[in-house]
């Protein structure tokens, strides 16, 4: 079915449910039919109506277990992948209160089934970064229900406790609401769950996250709550718990933002909050770099982590974890850069292939050259270009067999980076200047590849960077004796100078400057410019 047909089917199902809401079998079958669609993507065009109808179905047919299970599943699927406005909309139609009633009904029957577990999962998802829904949950006496469910089923049902603590974590992220968690009874539950490593770290992790936000508010707010448990004891328990977790553990969690975590990083008065936050970032950027490294950069975490890694107030554990995050970000950015360079080179090979096919007069032995210019983004910061030369080299290595096949004998990649600053921080200053970096790959023989990284100095001469000299691509160091078989080319100009020809002009200039000047003036402007650039 195409998109329009699917929409017609969905609208027909909704019309049927609306017109025959009392018909249990029909409503159930309509809900089952909705499950066959991609939720929530294919119902976004009528999201509010679907959510409203599902809530009404749950109210009307609360005694039918199968219908309950289907509707709660649909509501949870709708809450998983939508943004704030739609979550607020679901909260405003009474979905939170209805789900809490379903959970309370199951509790009265002493039953913990799919409806209860998925119901708590729905509440976890619908309150994520949505303070208004967190407040609705609290107003509906959700914390009391949490306490009862934990007392009744907490020791036996891992998924139930994980979902409940995920929800409590969302409340803990809201400064105005988390004081309602500050009671001796709740703190005892959260501290007890720090040692719960049943099946995975999720329960312990979520509990530590709740406590991290509570201790981050400082001594005064802790004292105002009147709890008996010392704040420093909780800090120590959080740190001790994180030391037991596996940093490589894959997580049952889907963060949409790191802002609540990043806010905890500079809380120097709360070691437990810092430890949990930096561990979370280290774990998530290790296990899913492609998704989560971007969050750290875009949400302002990079500078805070760099400060944590060097600040004397940071513990060794926090410094190590901060460095892990920074290393993960560098490697992720390096991979993205490599993939981009490879994509550009692959595109260049395709263009050459098409050009040769269209122009039969071109010799298959023509030497082809590729020039790539990378734009520097000052928002990235100085440290983000440190790995570029090595990443570009790796990308060229990956593409080398295609370069040889298409007779691409030279690839040059140019970009500008900030010159190193004299200050001790990595912050960009107005006095800093840009410098040009050139990575040049040459392979005229098809057998002996060479690569060199150059820095252009103040008088526009290209100086090879000592650690990145010729023959690096062949696995040798720049200090290894070797012969260079190459020519020097001028890009974007119709004239190419061979190395021998250029050497002749250089010798001519040194031996007879006056005659050289006269001969130079007779050259075409392109050749004059070429010689000036090369010299």
Automatic annotation (TrEMBL):
GO cellular component, one term: Cul2-RING ubiquitin ligase complex
The protein's name: Atx10homo_assoc domain-containing protein
PANTHER family to which the protein is assigned, alphabetical: PROTEIN ZER-1 HOMOLOG (PTHR12904:SF23), PTHR12904
InterPro entries: ARM-like (IPR011989), ARM-type_fold (IPR016024), ZER1-like_C (IPR055142), Zyg-11_UBL_adapter (IPR051341)
Domain of life: Eukaryota
Occurrences of domain Protein zer-1 homolog-like C-terminal (ranges): 1-330
Alphabetized UniProt keyword annotations: Ubl conjugation pathway
């Amino acid at each position: 079915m195409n998109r329009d047909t699917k929409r017609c089917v969905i609208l027909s199902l909704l019309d049927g449910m609306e017109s025959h809401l009392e018909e249990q079998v029909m409503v159930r079958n309509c809900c089952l039919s909705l499950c066959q669609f991609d939720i929530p993507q294919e119902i976004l065009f009528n999201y509010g109506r679907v959510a409203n109808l599902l809530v009404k179905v749950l109210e009307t047919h609360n005694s039918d277990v199968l219908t309950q299970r289907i509707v709660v599943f649909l509501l949870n699927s709708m809450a998983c992948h939508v943004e704030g406005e739609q979550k607020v909309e679901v909260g405003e139609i009474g979905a939170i209160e209805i789900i809490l009633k379903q959970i309370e009904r199951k509790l009265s029957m002493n039953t913990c089934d799919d409806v209860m577990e998925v119901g708590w999962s729905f509440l976890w998802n619908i309150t994520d970064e949505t303070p208004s829904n967190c407040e609705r949950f609290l107003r509906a006496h959700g914390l009391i229900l949490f306490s009862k469910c934990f007392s009744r089923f907490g020791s036996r049902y891992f998924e139930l406790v994980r979902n409940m603590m995920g929800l409590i974590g969302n409340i803990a992220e809201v400064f105005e609401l988390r004081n309602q968690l500050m009671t001796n009874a709740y703190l005892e539950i959260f501290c007890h769950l720090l040692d719960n490593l049943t099946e995975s770290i999720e329960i312990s992790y979520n509990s530590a996250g709740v406590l991290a936000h509570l201790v981050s508010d400082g001594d005064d707010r802790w004292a105002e709550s009147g709890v008996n448990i010392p704040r420093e004891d909780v800090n120590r328990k959080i740190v001790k718990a994180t030391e037991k977790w596996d940093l490589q553990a894959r997580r049952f969690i889907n963060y949409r933002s790191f802002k609540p975590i990043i806010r905890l990083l500079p809380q120097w008065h709360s070691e437990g909050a810092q430890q949990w936050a930096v561990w979370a970032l280290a774990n998530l950027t290790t296990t899913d770099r492609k998704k989560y490294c971007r969050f750290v950069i875009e949400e302002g975490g990079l500078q805070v982590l760099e400060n944590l890694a060097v600040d004397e107030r940071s513990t060794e554990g926090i410094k190590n974890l901060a460095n892990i995050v920074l290393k993960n970000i560098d490697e992720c950015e390096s991979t993205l850069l490599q993939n981009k360079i490879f994509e550009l080179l692959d595109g260049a090979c395709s263009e050459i292939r098409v050009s040769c096919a269209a122009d039969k007069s071109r010799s298959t032995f023509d030497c082809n050259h590729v020039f790539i210019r990378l734009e520097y983004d000052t928002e990235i910061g100085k440290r983000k270009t440190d790995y570029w030369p090595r990443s570009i080299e790796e990308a060229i290595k990956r593409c080398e067999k295609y370069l040889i096949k298409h007779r691409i004998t030279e690839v040059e990649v140019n970009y500008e980076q900030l010159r190193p600053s004299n200050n001790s921080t990595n912050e960009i200053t107005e006095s800093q200047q840009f410098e040009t970096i050139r990575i040049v790959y040459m392979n005229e023989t098809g057998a002996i590849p060479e690569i060199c990284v150059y820095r252009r100095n103040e008088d526009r001469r290209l100086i090879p960077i000592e650690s990145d000299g010729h023959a690096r691509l062949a696995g040798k160091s720049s200090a290894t004796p070797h012969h260079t078989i190459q020519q020097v080319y001028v890009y974007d100009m119709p004239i190419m100078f061979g190395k021998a020809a250029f050497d002749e002009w250089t010798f001519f200039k040194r031996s007879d400057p006056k005659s050289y000047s006269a001969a130079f003036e007779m050259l075409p402007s392109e050749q004059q410019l070429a010689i000036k650039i090369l010299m």
